[in-house]
Specification:
It is built from 19 helices and 33 strands. By secondary structure, it is an alpha+beta fold. Strands 1, 9, 10, 11, 12, 14, 15, 16, 17 and 20 form a 10-stranded antiparallel sheet that branches. Strands 8-7-13-19-18 form a 5-stranded antiparallel sheet, with no helix packed on it. Strands 21-28-29-30-33 form a 5-stranded antiparallel sheet. A hairpin with a 2-residue loop joins β28 and β29. The radius of gyration is 27 Å and the shape is globular. The protein binds beta-D-glucopyranose. The site of beta-D-glucopyranose has 12 residues, from α4. InterPro entries: 6-hairpin_glycosidase_sf, 6hp_glycosidase-like_sf, Gal_mutarotase_sf_dom, GH65_N, Glyco_hydro_65_C, Glyco_hydro_65_M, Glyco_hydro_65_N, Malt_Pase/Glycosyl_Hdrlase. Belongs to the glycosyl hydrolase 65 family. Pfam families: Glyco_hydro_65C (PF03633), Glyco_hydro_65m (PF03632), Glyco_hydro_65N (PF03636).
Length: 763
């Protein structure tokens, strides 16, 4: 076991924590979480207080939602049992009474291998001294599997040792259907989803198997006598399965999965898991020279992004805290489509596809929401769980501890355009025709239809969208939010584009789809009219975009006066004054610049960015990444780098204690976007990939991989040499546009391009 319990030597792949800090414990649990998109386990310490150690590691199961029957109840992700519990007694005394008593404790997240390792020494009892090392993983190659390994090295002492392994918290939000020695089956009380957990623990002392005493209900114990130099190895495999219908029993599947794992042996499970991680890293690692903090942040981001998705499950998507914590109850927001999807579309298209097919499966719920509110087409839930029904709570406790009404579930409608945007990005990145024809086109058309029915023509001859919330949630129930209107226009334009595309290339499919949706020419004509005349908020004399009707007239507040604050601006000013002010919660017009860069030509983007940037209070973890992305594209790498580091600090700085509820997966997606779409200046289209790098001065080089239309490319930008190395690692020859000049890229070797001066086109 020794080697397996050792972390990767290269510090750039490691996140470590020493000692015991109760104040930051729950934040560390989020940061050190392990996940595979189906199972997520918080990074609880292996040695904690009380008479137990290895507690309590909350385990999440993607898609295991339940909604109580209470008034106003919303779906919540229900945690599964903690399968990692172990209790060790030395001569009848718990190994750890108080975590502070341990001689040492170290926790290491080995991001390269996707495992959490811990090591602690207990030398302060005279009778016995032991070193404990543990590993836990949830397998990336077989997502039902979890594995726990523990090695107990006896340094000195001859005492009676007993080790008890159990599952705890088995009935938290779940009803036990049957719990036996090696298998438990539970149901969510209302949605009647099934959860099965099967386990196989074993213990060897100095290489000899010690038989377990079966204590019933997923509980076992072993006893033996220690002696100096003795090595005891405990291994526990678990298989976890979910079933979505009340009449389906998940048990047989869990047993089969566990059986396969046992045949493979835990070494095989570890090896397959590590191979799966190695393959993810080959596709998604971003390397930065010259800025170790940025390097670690990008690894951490890719680690959690790779952990969050599951290409094999099209019935789930990624919640705002992925599977790392309770905040937002596992609900899915625009975070997934806007902040995460670019990473997946360009490094893991299968995962991106599954996330979008989830939106296809929830299209009926989106149609029903639109119809209920009096519109046509599809209005997606602002917060979505398993069915796609609106899951936004109607009230929450605000940051000032008061109960506030939440209007986003009704008014934050840009989500429909965000989903359409992601569908289009995926289509551009992959050219996946089956996806477009089976799923994507219908999403694009139904969301376009929603906007065309949502916008109303008024006396000025223009179409308006009244009564919405944009990304800036400080201003509610506003009219003509530029982000919403321009994204709606873009959505309608893509809807019309897909009509043309299907008519030209797949006429039969178009006839079927259009007749199923009842889409006729007269309706498409109305879409065009809406797109042509929708109010944009753009002042043609200044190029400034008004965030929403009336925004320019609101009170100007100099945010520099509040620079040292530790609470969001809506708490400082109060909700009423914030609403009457120009202070915005997060990138709104700036988000528009980030998403539709081609629509803002000349100086328009820079002018709008510099107008809105000082007005933004960054009251959401999503905000800074958008600013960083736009600043990087505008050629302001120093400013962009500041946003990059501030975004990295959200989940990584010890000063931020607010990540107890889980990592901010959207901000992590934003880090990747700032590096790849921002500093490297990568953009994709149906015809190829373009790159226009502007690295921060401290970054000596930036290297990363992307996939495009079945090809795999590795790109490396070197700052001092002002050069780009592009390698086509897999797939057919393609065109790469570098700073406006096209190059032919094939498998004959790397292309070296100087970024110093205009190039002669080689293609
Ligand atoms: C932000 C939303 C975001 C949500 C979940 C809110 O605070 O304003 O834009 O979708 O958090 O991350």
């Amino acid at each position: 076991m020794d080697k397996i319990l050792q972390a990767t030597a290269d510090a750039a792949w490691i996140l470590g924590e020493e000692g015991h800090d109760p104040l930051r414990e729950s934040s560390h649990e989020s940061r050190f979480a392990i996940s595979n998109g189906f199972l997520g386990v918080r990074g609880a310490r292996a040695a904690t207080g009380g008479c137990r150690w290895a507690i309590p590691a909350r385990t999440y199961v993607a898609g295991l939602f339940d909604t109580s029957t209470a008034d106003g109840a919303i779906p919540e992700l229900v945690p599964g049992a903690d399968w990692l519990r172990v209790r060790i007694l030395l001569d009848g005394k718990p190994l750890v009474d108080d975590p502070g008593d341990l001689s040492s404790h170290r926790m290491t997240l080995d991001m390269r291998r996707g495992v959490l390792l811990t090591e602690c020494l207990q030398m302060n009892t005279p009778a016995v001294g032991v070193r404990l090392r543990t590993l836990r993983l949830v397998s990336l190659s077989e997502r039902s599997l979890g594995l726990q390994l523990i090695q107990l090295d006896v340094e000195h002492g001859e005492v009676a040792v007993s080790l008890e392994a159990s599952f705890e918290g088995m009935n938290l939000g779940l009803v036990a259907e049957r719990v036996g020695q090696d298998l438990g089956v539970w149901r969510t009380p209302h949605s009647r989803k099934g959860l099965a957990m099967a386990a196989a623990p074993s213990l060897q002392v100095d290489g000899d198997e010690v038989p377990a005493t079966a204590l019933g209900e997923l509980r076992w114990s072993w006893t033996w006598r220690s002696r100096p130099g003795q090595v005891a190895c405990f291994a526990r495999s678990v298989a976890v399965t979910r079933s979505d219908a009340p009449d389906l029993d998940p048990a047989a599947d869990a047993r089969d999965k566990l059986g396969a794992a046992q045949r493979l042996g835990w070494r095989g499970v570890v090896a397959d898991h590590e191979a799966a991680w190695a393959s993810r890293w080959r596709c998604s690692d971003v390397e930065v020279e010259g800025d170790p903090v940025a390097q670690q942040a990008l690894r951490f981001a890719a680690y959690h992004l790779n952990s969050a998705a599951n290409p094999a499950d099209e019935r789930v998507s990624i919640g705002a805290r992925a599977l790392t914590g309770d905040d937002y109850r596992g609900h899915v927001f625009w975070d997934t489509e806007i902040f995460l999807l670019p990473f997946y579309a360009l490094t893991w298209p299968e995962a991106a596809r599954a996330l979008l097919v989830y939106r296809f499966h929830t299209l009926d719920a989106a149609r029903a929401k639109a119809a209920r509110m009096g519109w046509r087409g599809a209005l997606y839930a602002w917060e979505s769980a398993d069915t796609g029904d609106e899951a936004t709570p109607e009230q929450v406790i605000g940051p000032d501890r008061r109960v506030v009404d939440v209007l986003s579930g009704r008014l934050e409608q840009h989500i429909s355009a965000d989903v359409a945007y992601a569908v289009w990005q995926y289509w551009q990145a992959t050219g996946d025709e089956t996806f477009l024809l089976d799923f994507g086109a219908e999403i694009l058309l139904e969301t376009a239809r929603f906007w065309a029915s949502r916008a109303r023509v008024e006396a000025d001859g223009r179409h308006h969208i009244r009564g919405v919330i944009g990304p800036d949630e400080y201003h509610e129930d506003i009219d003509d939010n530029a982000f919403t209107n321009l994204m709606a226009r873009w959505n309608i334009a893509r809807g019309l584009e897909v009509v043309t595309l299907m008519g030209e290339r797949w006429a039969g499919r178009w006839t079927q789809l259009s007749s199923r949706l009842g889409l006729e020419d007269v309706e498409l004509k109305q879409w065009r009219a809406v797109a042509d005349t929708i109010s944009t908020g753009i002042d043609s004399s200044t190029g400034l975009i008004e965030q929403f009707a009336g925004y320019f007239a609101l009170e100007e507040i100099d945010l520099a006066d509040y620079a040292g604050r530790s609470v969001p601006m809506d708490v400082v000013l109060g909700r009423a004054r914030t609403r009457q002010s120009q202070v915005i919660k997060q990138a709104d017009v700036v988000a528009l610049l980030a998403l539709l860069p081609d629509e803002f030509i000349g100086d328009t983007a820079a002018e709008n960015f510099h107008y809105y940037e000082p007005r933004c209070g960054h009251g959401s973890s999503l905000s800074r990444a958008m600013h960083g992305l736009v600043a990087a594209r505008l050629g302001e790498p120093a400013l962009a780098l500041r946003y990059f580091h501030e975004t990295a600090a959200i989940d990584l700085a010890e000063t931020h204690a607010a990540i107890a509820g889980g990592v901010h997966i959207a901000a992590l997606g934003g880090l990747w976007q700032m590096a790849v779409l921002g500093f490297a200046g990568l953009s994709i289209g149906a015809d190829g990939v373009a790159i226009d790098p502007k690295l921060p001065a401290s970054w000596r080089s930036l290297a990363f991989s992307v996939q495009w239309h079945g090809r795999q490319l590795r790109l490396r930008i070197a700052q001092a040499e002002q050069s780009l190395e592009a390698t086509l690692e897999a797939g057919e020859p393609m065109t790469l546009v570098v700073c406006g000049t096209s190059y032919a890229l094939d498998r004959d070797g790397a292309l070296h391009i100087s970024l110093r001066e205009p190039q002669n086109a080689a293609a």
